[in-house]
Amino acid sequence: GFQGVSQTTKDITTLGRGGSDTTAVALAAALRADVCEIYTDVDGVFTEDPRLVPGARRIPRISYEEMLELAACGAKVLMPRCIEYARRYALPIHVRSSFSEKTGTWVMGHATDESEEAGMEQAIISGVAHDRSEAKITVVGVPDRVGEAARIFGIVAAAGINIDMIVQNVSAIATGRTDISFTLPVADGQQALELLRTAQDTVGFQQVLYDDRIGKVSLIGAGMRSHPGVSAKFFAALAEAGVNIQMISTSEIRISVVVSQSDVDVAVNATHKAFDLEAEEVEAVVYGGTGR
Length: 292
Prior knowledge:
This protein has helices at residues 19-30, 64-72, 80-88, 148-158, 189-198, 200-203, 230-240, 264-274; strands at 3-5, 12-14, 36-40, 61-62, 93-97, 105-107, 127-131, 134-143, 166-168, 177-185, 207-211, 214-220, 247-251, 254-260. The strands form 4 sheets. Strands 3-5-6-4 form a 4-stranded mixed β-sheet. By secondary structure, it is α+β, with helices and mostly antiparallel strands. The chain has 8 helices and 14 strands. It has a domain at 14-111: 3-Layer(aba) Sandwich (Carbamate kinase). Helix 1 (19-30) runs parallel beside helix 3 (80-88) and helix 7 packs across helix 8 (264-274).
């Protein structure tokens, strides 16, 4: 279920990780199905990976946008392409276990839908996600001139490398230079590093720093749009746990931070506890143990 055929050349290709789910949703949309059921080795989507947080709670219902953010930030139950297809065609997805008859998680509706038809009252926070597969590059001493950032990211883009988070410091008045940090898949880290070092004299920055011992922790929830204090509570929880924040990135329904890789587990558990996401009793059962 994860192969595709080109309509013009008839070449067969694999769609990559998540291709089975994407194929299933695409077929369900084409057949105008009422729902697409995705069977996996856990009883649905949880507030965190139950392998890391045993007290993680099953999410009965989550919007397409929140599920997209969870998937993009490291949750492995569904892949982003699958969710994008479902959102485009307003196709509900029911994520459930292959090993039980329990109701799983319904992925449906939109984070911006505040009508009664959207279902129960939206929880402030839907879940926490983490990702250990990224690296951080810092370009030090970039001349603070128009177009310099474009040149740097153009070099990375030309190699087909995706960039996640970006932070640029305020330019130092004395030197007229600034630092730019960004994260990218660790598999592409060394290639990007070599490309930037090769272009150092042309662009005119001072040096490039590389760190592949980082992790990203993300807090996702549509409710944070209308509830002040979520960021303060998140950062306070990390501070109390002794976790230092290296980078911060936000969207309307997500806050992501980059921390040391050794602090990821502590940060995830502290955040999960701070927002009362634990179940009263252990709900998560990993039947197959495949880690999907």
